[in-house]
Specification:
Blueprint (H helix, E strand, L loop, with lengths): L2 E7 L3 E6 L2 E2 H5 L18 E6 L6 H10 L5 E3 L4 E2 L3 E5 L7 E2 L2 E2 L8 E7 L3 E8 L5 E8 L9 H32 L6 E8 L1 H7 L20 E3 L10 E7 L9 H10 L7 E7 L3 E6 L4 E6 L2 H4 L14 E8 L2 E6 L7 E2 L1 H13 L15 E5 L2 E4 H24 L7 E7 L8 H6 L10 E5 L1 H10 L6 H6 L1 E3 L8 H8 L5
Helix pairs in contact: 3-4, 5-10, 8-12
This protein binds FE2/S2 (inorganic) cluster.
C-alpha cells in the first residue's frame, strides 16, 4: 500500500496516511469543522497547499471557482491524499463557528485550552486568546476504555474499586496532552475549559458516580467544578481558572450544553433541534424561551456496539455505502480493506436494503437468509438490522416525545443539527429514508464536534450566561412518558 506524509501547519504535525485517504478523514479528528457537511458550499474547510499536489476534479474546480478560491487553495471536503503534502489549515487561523457564522470574541492575553472529554476520544486545542488562532491540537483515545467502551461499564468499574485509578488516569492523560501542546509555546495558560458527559465529569472531578448505577439513576452533583493545577497534579500553571462546565442532567452533560451554545439554539426564535450521536445519544429541541432535552439508548449501536461487525469511525471501517447500477459500493476510512462497519454505513445499509426490497417493513430479511454481504467479508445480520431498528426508534421516539413536551409538531422545527463522531460521514437522505428523523432532509445539517466548538467559545465567554440557559432547559425522562412504549414500538417499523 502506498503511504504519504501529510504535514499540517501551523501545528507542524506530520501524519502518515494511505494513498487516496480523504482529507476529511484526517482533519475532523483535529477538531476541523465541516459546516456545510462537505457539500462544497460554505468554503470554511479550505486549506492552502504549501507543498505537493492535490488533484482537482471538475466538480472540485467548479466549487473553488464559485467560492472565488485562489489557485493554491483546496476544499478539504473534496480532497484526497495522493502525494506527500504540506497544508495550512485555514480554520486554525481564528475560525470559531456559532450557528455557521463566525463567533465574535473579545481578545485577551495568553492562551486558553479547550478540552472535549469524550467517553471514547479526548481532544484538546490550544487557543491564542488574542487572535482565537489554534496553536496546537492533541487527540487521544480515552485511556479509560480499558474499563469498557460505554458509560455503564465505566460506572461499574468505578463501583468495582477503580474510581481513583480512573480519575488519576484521565487527569494525567489530559495534563500530558496540554504539556505536549505547550512544547513549542512560551506564553502562559489563562484558562482551561473542559466539557464532557456527566459520567466523565464526575470521574474527572473525583466525585461519586454510584447514584448513576441504580434506579432512579439520578445525581444532584451536576454543577460547575473548578480546580487548581496542583489538585490535578498538573505541573504547569494556569493563571485564571480550570473549569469543568456544568451538566444539564444525569445523562446529559456539559458537552450538550456546549452544543446548545455552538449551534446558537438558545438564541433563536424558531425551534431548532440538536442530536448528538456519540456513545450516548442525546436530543435537544428548543428556542430562546424554552429548551427540552433527553438522553436515549441509541448511541452504542452507532458506535458499533451490539453490531456483529460494528466498529467506530476509524481506519478500516466502512463509512458509507451507495448504490451504483444496483450494486452496493463501499467507502472505507483510510482507503484500506474493510474490517467492519461504522454507524453512518449502518444507516446507509438499511436504507439501501429497503430500497432494494431486501428488508421488509418489520426489518425482516425478505430472503429468509441470516445476513447480507456489504463489501469484502463484512456483512450485516438479521440481529444487526433489529439493533438498528431499536436505535433509530429511540431517536425518532425521543424527538416525538420532546416535541410533545413543548406542545409543538415536529414540523415546527426549522433546523436540526447532527453532531457526533461519525456525523461527518452520515448520509442525511438515508437518515430520513429509514425514518430515524422524520423531517425533510433540507433542514438537517451536520455540525461535527459541537462540544469542542462550544468549549472554545466558553474560553472567550464571560458574557455568555450559562445559568440562564440551564434555567430554561428541562430534562425529560423519555421512559417515564406514558406514551413512550407505544411511540417507540411504532417507530421501529420502516414505513417508507
Ligand atoms: S465547503 Fe463546506 S465543508 Fe467543505
Amino acid at each position: 500500500m502506498i503511504r504519504h506524509t501529510i504535514t499540517l501547519q501551523p501545528l507542524g504535525k506530520n501524519l502518515k496516511v494511505n494513498d487516496q485517504t480523504p482529507l476529511i478523514d484526517l482533519l475532523h479528528e483535529f477538531g476541523v469543522e465541516f459546516p456545510c457537511g462537505g457539500k462544497g458550499t460554505c468554503g470554511k474547510c479550505k486549506v492552502r497547499l504549501l507543498e505537493g499536489e492535490i488533484e482537482v476534479n471538475e466538480v472540485h474546480r467548479k466549487k473553488m471557482e464559485q467560492l472565488g478560491l485562489p489557485e493554491e487553495w483546496r476544499l478539504a471536503c473534496y480532497s484526497s491524499c495522493t502525494s506527500n503534502i504540506t497544508l495550512e489549515i485555514e480554520q486554525f487561523n481564528h475560525l470559531i463557528l456559532a450557528d455557521e457564522t463566525e463567533f465574535d470574541f473579545c481578545p485577551r492575553q495568553g492562551f486558553g485550552v479547550a478540552v472535549d472529554l469524550g467517553t471514547t476520544t479526548l481532544v484538546t486545542q490550544l487557543v491564542d486568546l488574542k487572535t482565537a488562532c489554534i496553536m496546537a491540537v492533541e487527540t487521544l483515545v480515552n485511556p479509560q476504555v480499558k474499563f469498557g467502551s460505554d458509560l455503564i461499564s465505566r460506572v461499574q468499574a468505578s463501583l468495582d474499586g477503580h474510581a481513583l485509578e480512573m480519575t488519576q488516569m484521565i487527569r494525567f492523560a489530559i495534563g500530558t496532552m496540554i504539556r505536549q501542546m505547550l512544547k513549542n509555546h512560551s506564553a502562559g495558560i489563562q484558562k482551561v475549559v473542559l466539557v464532557g458527559n456527566t459520567v466523565m465529569q464526575l470521574i474527572f472531578s473525583d466525585c461519586d458516580v454510584s447514584p448513576l448505577s441504580a434506579y432512579p439513576f439520578h445525581t444532584t452533583n451536576l454543577g460547575m467544578k473548578s480546580f487548581t493545577p496542583s489538585e490535578l497534579n498538573w505541573n504547569f500553571s494556569v493563571s485564571e481558572s480550570i473549569i469543568f462546565y456544568p451538566s444539564i442532567g444525569s445523562f446529559v452533560g456539559s458537552d450538550i450544553l456546549a452544543g446548545i451554545v455552538a449551534t446558537g439554539l438558545h438564541q433563536k426564535d424558531e425551534y431548532t433541534a440538536l442530536i448528538d450521536l456519540g456513545t450516548n445519544g442525546e436530543i435537544v429541541i428548543g428556542n430562546r424561551d424554552r429548551i427540552v432535552c433527553a438522553s436515549t439508548a441509541a448511541g452504542p449501536a452507532f458506535e458499533g456496539a451490539n453490531i456483529s461487525m460494528g466498529m467506530r469511525a476509524v481506519t478500516g471501517a466502512i463509512s458509507s455505502l451507495r448504490l451504483e447500477n444496483d450494486q452496493i459500493e463501499a467507502t472505507v476510512i483510510g482507503n484500506t480493506s474493510p474490517k467492519g462497519i461504522c454507524g453512518s454505513a449502518l444507516i446507509d445499509a438499511v436504507a439501501i436494503f429497503r430500497r432494494l426490497e431486501l428488508v421488509g417493513i418489520f426489518g425482516e430479511i425478505n430472503s429468509g437468509d441470516e445476513f447480507i454481504y456489504l463489501g469484502g467479508k463484512v456483512k450485516l445480520t438479521q440481529k444487526d438490522i433489529n439493533e438498528f431498528q431499536l436505535a433509530k426508534a429511540a431517536i425518532a421516539a425521543g424527538l416525538a416525545i420532546l416535541a410533545n413536551n413543548l406542545s409543538i409538531r415536529l414540523a415546527d422545527i426549522s433546523e436540526l443539527y447532527i453532531a457526533g463522531g461519525f456525523g461527518n460521514y452520515i448520509n442525511i437522505d438515508h437518515v430520513v429514508e429509514t425514518g430515524m428523523i422524520e423531517l425533510p432532509a433540507e433542514i438537517i445539517h451536520k455540525r461535527g464536534n459541537t462540544a469542542l466548538i462550544g468549549a472554545k467559545m466558553f474560553l472567550f465567554s464571560d458574557h455568555l450566561n450559562i445559568y440562564e440557559i440551564l434555567a430554561k432547559t428541562k430534562l425529560v425522562n423519555l421512559e417515564c412518558d406514558s406514551s413512550f412504549q407505544d411511540i417507540y414500538v411504532d417507530k421501529m417499523l420502516f414505513l417508507k
